[in-house]
Description:
- The complex is a heterodimer.
- Chain A is an all-alpha fold.
- Chain A is built from 16 helices and 2 strands.
- Chain A starts with 42 loop residues before the first helix and ends with a helix.
- Chain B is mostly helical.
- Helix content of chain B is 44%, strand content 2%.
- Chain B has helices at residues 20-30, 36-41, 46-59, 68-77, 96-108, 117-126, 144-156, 165-174, 192-204, 213-221, 240-252, 261-270, 289-301, 323-328, and strands at residues 3-4, 9-10, 315-316, 321-322.
- In chain B, the strands form 2 sheets. A two-stranded antiparallel sheet of chain B has the order 1-2. In chain B, strands 3-4 form a two-stranded antiparallel ribbon.
- In chain B, a hairpin with a 4-residue loop joins β3 and β4.
- In chain B, α5 (96-108) packs parallel to α7.
- Chain B starts with a strand and ends in a 14-residue tail after the last helix.
Amino acid sequence: MSTSDDESTTPHVFYKDRxxxxxxxxxxxxxxxxxxxxxxxxxxxxDVYNYIRGVINTGELSRRVLSLTCDAIGLNAANYTVWQLxxxxxxxxxxxxxxxxxxxxxxxxxEFTFCEKMIENIQKNYQxxxxxxxxxxxxxxxxxxxxxxQVKNPEALDILFKRExxxxxxILSYDAKNYHAWQHRQWILSIFKDYSGELxxxxxxxxxxxxxxxxxxxxxxxxxxxxxxxxxxxxxxLNAVWEFVKVALCNESPWSYLRGLxxxxxxxxxxxQKEVVARCxxxxxxxxxxxVPMLGLYIEFIDDLLRNGEPDxxxxxxxxxxxxxxxxxxxxxxxxxxxxxxxxxxxxxxDSELDKxxxxxxxx
Amino acid sequence: xxxxxxxxIILPNAxxxxxxxxxxxxxxxxxxxKDDYDYCMTEFLRMSGMYWGLTALQLMDRLDSVPKxxxxxxxxxxxHEGTGGFSPAKDHDPHLLYSLSAIQILAMYDEFKAVDCxxxxxxxxxxxxxxxxxxGDKYGEVDIRFSFCAVATLALMKKLxxxxxxxxxxxxLSCQNFDGGFGSKPGSESHAxxxxxxxxxxxxxxxxxxxxxxxxxxxxxxxQLKSGGFNGRPEKLPDVCYSWWVLASLTILGRGDWIDQxxxxxxxLSCQxxxxxxxxxxxxxxxxxxxxxxxLGALSILGYEDETTVKLKKINPVFCMSQExxxxxxxxxxxxxxxxxx
Lengths: 364, 342
């Protein structure tokens, strides 16, 4: 069960049988009087955790405790008290050191390797990622309250920046939607304030799987970090996204993305909405466009445009007809939602003149 | 066993009826005749495990099948006088996650007097950050889940004035994404479980009207798949726990009828383990108390009843506790005016 740098013990010797641990009083788990919570531990688990409780009780922070936490983490990596004990030990014995251009300090490097291995083994565990974040913070002297780093040397920073991007990339290559990995990656990008290569990575992920919603989320994260919401920049992004839209019309992610993207636009919003409506029209009219998320956005944009522009009886009638189809045939499981949209739409745009027109159209 | 598709499943033919006696037996046994390994491995969340099991039993009106004194003694054992927080089990560190579970359990039993609640208030208060967010414990991880835990814990004890509620709501809103949903931190991907935390927090703080119910309601509706079940993010498999998180969120938004309720009921019933009792994430998987509570909770919101007149108690969509308890504490949550009633 021991891993990495700490002394490996195979075959396993119980701590209670190790002479070098005789000075520590093991503390068995005291679960109180309650039978609803009685625990029957496995022997090794009990042994290791008895000694964990023992050293927590004495407050010992030493190398042998570091090794003990290694075993305890191996038995149950979700125990956050043990991880914290490990960090307390690391600090107490002076392992964390600031990175320089030659890289991490040798012993600190081992701790990074240990944590990275743990991350690879248990990729969806909060504690491992939290530990990795603590290690990075130590290595660059990151202060969360001021959002600044003590290390300023670009070469030194680049070593760690690349290492963390590679770590998250590796984990995302197993599961491209791993929430922890994405969170760590966003944190790294934001503390190192370098987003320059990220769009390329997102494009690669979307080329691999255009339905990867996490990658779409990351795309928005990167796009907004650039802070350029001009019509030119938004149109360029619309063009880029449209290539992915065409691949899978029913994929809800890019439609959500477009909705969000166009919300960033100021005065040019109607222009962009018109552009999207125009691009959707061929799909809608060819009846190949039974993509629910596309039609949802299409209807929403026309609704917006009608609210802010001139009444357009033809457009109005088309949407009402489309909504009828949504309710009855295209998306009946969400019929109540489309009912609601229909009522909202008709209340906003349907004066009596238009109503007559609509009835004729629907009946036709 | 249900057939697997890439992002949805095909349900077995006819779902079983709701097997309440089996579920009650499953839950009350879970605490005593448990598998050693599993029990060891879940020690770090024991307090929440008890809350899931006990709440589910209460919904079935079977809370009396567990000795109250033992439960209260366990909760007291996990209380840390020094910090005012609760740990998941003895010898673990206190954390907001387990503090909410502990307070929920004490609320169910009307036993706030079992611990020094003023300390609990101080614990929660001490974890709020200048931006309104909350650390989960002294080690500094921030997550929207902890905001929910903090706010719900204080609300149950009627001590919301101990924190800056406006800032707490501001932080929640800073986690809202372009698609209308919420992630665990600003910039993180929308996820139905985290949306529940966001919407629940805003509901308790009476600030739910600060979000656009139509946009978020639509994203939540899109979580329903052909099988009738909900996923938590696009292109993921359906799971019973999302039945709760999505439906409870829609209910708080006043839009619970925007989805196909009959199809959802069928999905949830199919996730019951007819031999052991309990609900699993998906049909054919192993049952556990977590999915059992969320399956029953969703059925309660849906007002499920069958010909055997099996009826669940009404659940509160924000606190995920029996409505009776919330009423007895005199707590009101904010529900957005309906979007579906037209």
